[in-house]
Amino acid sequence: MGCIKLKAQRNHILFIRLILSGYRCLLFWVLSCSTSWYISITLMYSTWISYQNNAISFMVETSYTEWDSKFPAVFVCDVKNDDKIATVSDKNLPSFHSRSHALKLQMISNRTLGPGSLQLELNGRKQVKSLNIHQRKCRFAEENYLDVINSYSYSACLMQCRKDAQLRKCGCAHHLMPNLS
């Protein structure tokens, strides 16, 4: 008699039954449990490490259809309107301009503009703020702990690190380093 016995019960469902007799069955059971524990612990550890190092992920929400687009945009949803699109496109065919019949546009050359501004919309500030600085790998404006400059930036952080390293190494800092007092 083997360690594993397949048994068919009602409705022809197959069940696996362990018959605990002999050292081979005990060895099979111990190896199966040990392997499952090892794999479970490995998965939990890798999930924990992933959470510690990459707790924040940026992604585009594609299932949300109520976007408030703040830039000039065109949305074409031609999945269900094939007949309407065909009708409208036939009507618009005479107004189509090819390269040989192109409209003369007044082009402006050498026009310069000032620096633009780019605004990013990020949602989840409260949830992100609950993570520690090490996990999110950034600071908010009110979390400035720098001596050298009042506002936080990456270069200011590097300057602070250099100042701290100089003070640790020799007890002094470069004479041009801001806020040495």
Automatic annotation (TrEMBL):
Protein's UniProt name: Uncharacterized protein
Keywords, in A-Z order: Ion channel, Ion transport, Membrane, Sodium, Sodium channel, Sodium transport, Transmembrane, Transmembrane helix, Transport
Record GO terms (molecular function): sodium channel activity
Compartments (UniProt record): Membrane
Broad class of where this protein is predominantly found: membrane
Domain of life: Eukaryota
CC per GO annotation: membrane
Species assigned in the record: Dendroctonus ponderosae
Membrane topology designation: Multi-pass membrane protein
Entry's family note: Belongs to the amiloride-sensitive sodium channel (TC 1.A.6) family.
